[in-house]
Amino acid sequence: MVDKDSHDCAASPFRIRLYSDPVLREKAFPVQAITDVERKLAEDMLATMYASPIGVGLAAPQVGILKRLIVIDLDRDASEESPSVLFNPTIQSLAGEATEEEGCLSFPGITADVKRAARAVVTAQDIDGEPVQIEAEDLLARALQHEIDHLDGILFIDYVRGLKRQLLRGKLRKLRQQSEQ
Ligand code: NI
């Protein structure tokens, strides 16, 4: 997910995989044990997300790693709330409905209105391997659904249908050409 505010860019540990990279369509594997390797991966994913000017969420397949791990930080500037590092996140329930504009770090320059559930209950393991349950609404519920979709090879453009999808096609073609160069 992306935010529209801009921030300074720092060094990024990973290259973010762009649309047309087949890894974005793969299903990620559960993380069996949360070791230092997984914790370092989560830290590097956060650094990669913060290095982009607009990222508020990132899933491991977006850096080419097929593990069920997502990171989310909706409020990048405020340090009071720590970012969410979620291993094996699972949606337990969804409720309501909301349509908002969405973007994705794998789709630079592309946004689309996406209808999702307005509320979500998600269980996961945190960076220490402890079980957590998140009752989310609004942007957090949206970000969780977007990032968990990435773990199953589902992309936000998949929700764009009909005429709007046709209008997106030209932009997607351009992005595909850029990322294949
Ligand atoms: Ni995304």
Q: Characteristics of this structure?
A:
globular, 5-stranded antiparallel beta sheet, binds nickel (II) ion, Peptide Deformylase, 7 strands, single chain, two-stranded antiparallel ribbon, alpha+beta
Topology overview:
Blueprint: H1 36-51, E1 57-59, E2 69-72, E3 84-95, E4 98-103, E5 111-116, E6 119-125, E7 131-137, H2 138-151, H3 162-180
Please provide a written account of the structure.
The chain contains 3 helices and 7 strands, in the order αβββββββαα. It has one domain: Peptide Deformylase (Alpha-Beta Complex). The chain has a 5-stranded antiparallel sheet with strand order 1-2-3-6-7. A hairpin with a 7-residue loop joins β4 and β5. The protein has 181 residues and is α+β, with helices and mostly antiparallel strands. The mean pLDDT is 90. It has helices at residues 36-51, 138-151, 162-180, and strands spanning 57-59, 69-72, 84-95, 98-103, 111-116, 119-125, 131-137. Bound molecules: nickel (II) ion. Nickel (II) ion binds next to α2.
Strand order of the largest sheet: 1-2-3-6-7
Count of DSSP helices? 3
Radius of gyration: 16 Å
Going by CATH, the homologous superfamily would be Peptide deformylase
Please trace the helix and strand order, writing H or E for each element: HEEEEEEEHH
> Any idea of the CATH class?
Alpha Beta
How is the main sheet built? Answer: 5 strands, antiparallel
